[in-house]
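Bit of a strange request maybe. I'm writing a small parser for structure token strings and I need a real example to test against, not something I typed by hand. Could someone generate the tokens for this chain?
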Amino acid sequence: MIIFSKSNTIISILFVLIYFQNIIVRLQSVGSKGKFDFGPNQLASNIWYKPKGQLINGHYENSYSNFSLWSNLLLHLQNNNGSISIQASEIGYMKNEALMNFRKNNISVIVVLPAFTQCYDGTILGLLELYGESPKENLFCKIFDICNSTDRQDPNGKGWFVTRDDFAYTPDFLNFDERMPNLIPYLDYNKLMNISSNPPQWLYPNLSWVDRKTLARVDNCPQAGTNRISNLMHDYIKYLSIMNKKFNSTKIPGIQINWNVIEGWEWRDEHCLDLLYDKFNDSKQFDYAYRYITNPCHQDTPHLKDLVELLCSVNNCPEVVYMDMDLTYFTSYSLEVLHMNKQILNSLNISFGINLVDQCVEIDNCVAEILSTDHSQVVLNLDAESKYPNLTRNQMQELSLINVLNFLINQNILDKDTHIAITSWTTWPIEIGQQTNELRSGGMAHTANEIFERILIPHSFAK
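Reply from user aminoacidic:
Good idea to test on real output. This should exercise your parser:
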């Protein structure tokens, strides 16, 4: 028998108020100004990632842990509900005090998780990153090349979230790297087509399309099963279940996900290639349609919708989905996908974001630039023989990011509600320790200030 009392009634009312307050906050999230994430590329902790054969820059200690080096940018972030992103592997190099200082200065911390690109079950990945448990062999050593390291907290038996001075750390957000289409089977185009010939010809002209596909099929993650897309999506659910248990005594972090906007979605969609072959079984025509995405299937947007709805079904809606974009191979295709993804996320009341990164990636002497002002023919191009001989490579990246951002604004991709991650995942800018001073042209903090002061604030996207 349930006995209703005055105290029970008050508690019930409070629960109802909290429930509706949460709904209001959720509804306001898309309508509020974009939240800006600053992601400096202090990636020395990512010792498995060595573009050009070397580690990238240093650690946050003596660089971005020193707020005096970027005091103006700090104000921009504070004024706009901003964040700083830190690689999960960096926490083991940091002292607890340095991490707490971000929170004391009203800067939320996003921890970027590296494991989701790997072909392991979501439960295994969750136990590894959150608890430091490997099923058999040492996965920190196998995957991340962290073997018997003495200059950081050993993640074995602890996971990423323990500081160098042995404090458990709970971030504000966890950011998940892309899982699809990286782990989807694909057809090796070199084996499918004889691309060394001109014009391209079928490598196996006497075989059926089905047999040619069998010879060309590659699967780098067969253990993910035949129902691949669904299984990869449910790996998020397995991981989140472990995350919720890990942080249940503290504040459970919000989640963010990155989503690829790349032609690879089309090239790895076997059903789409079947349709393409039905329409263009001539090798030259097929090759052209394949390379230039003349008949896109656009299944990536429905997949995005399915993933977000799946995450929300377990009360772990993503705070934001960041678009990880290739804008230069086939610009019109990428723009079409961005518009579609933005529309579907808005319909789901999930914030749309972009990862603002240098499209030049590792190309030396390169600037991303807009080639045409004609709206129907506008293209974002890579000038790999830069017209800016007086700029350093760091300054070229700064110019590239400004050009890309202006391009996305002009194409109506970016507006006042868009979340923007101003970040770098590549070699540039090269800056170590005191070189991270925001007064240094081409540095990451200087670039972010230029973006705020020259673009975001004049457009009223930021204040």
